[in-house]
Amino acid sequence: MMIISKGPKIKCKRCQKQYDIDPVDFDDADISSDERSMGYELQYTWQYMSNCVRCKNELTIIVEGYEYPVGAFNYEEFTYEGCIVIENPELEIKHIEEYEDDDIY
């Protein structure tokens, strides 16, 4: 299972106010899977949406992490709208003894 272990640092594109985003401020991950040659690839997508407290500019962050094969970090992708990244978030694989079928598929 993949988690956001450290949130991003951003600044508003409009007024330059800086923010440290806590991982708990992101929506729960949407998880999808796709069967490939070495088993399943899991895609985790988290979204953060807020407005700048200073200028009300809309701030959106989308974090995507891929696990393939299950249990191995594959890659990550970040999308920022209305803000400039200072520091990307950090993703981490949390190993679980056994995946429940309902948790993966």
Strand order of the largest sheet: 4-5-6-7
Poorly predicted runs: none
Please tell me the overall pLDDT. Answer: 93
Task: Compute the separation of the termini in Å.
Answer: 13 Å
- Helix percent reads under 10%
Protein model, in words:
This protein has one helix spanning 101-104, and strands at 2-6, 9-12, 18-20, 30-36, 39-51, 58-67, 73-81, 83-87, 90-93. It is elongated, with a radius of gyration of 15 Å. It contains one helix and nine strands. A hairpin with a 5-residue loop joins β2 (9-12) and β3. It starts with a strand and ends with a helix. The model has no long low-confidence stretch (mean pLDDT 93). It has a four-stranded antiparallel beta sheet, with no helix packed on it. A three-stranded antiparallel beta sheet has the order 3-2-8, with no helix packed on it. The protein has one domain. It is mainly beta and 105 residues long. The longest helix is centred in the last third of the chain and has 4 residues, at 101-104.
Summarize the helices and strands and which ones pair or pack.
Layout: E1 2-6, E2 9-12, E3 18-20, E4 30-36, E5 39-51, E6 58-67, E7 73-81, E8 83-87, E9 90-93, H1 101-104
Antiparallel strand pairs: 1-9, 2-3, 2-8, 4-5, 5-6, 6-7
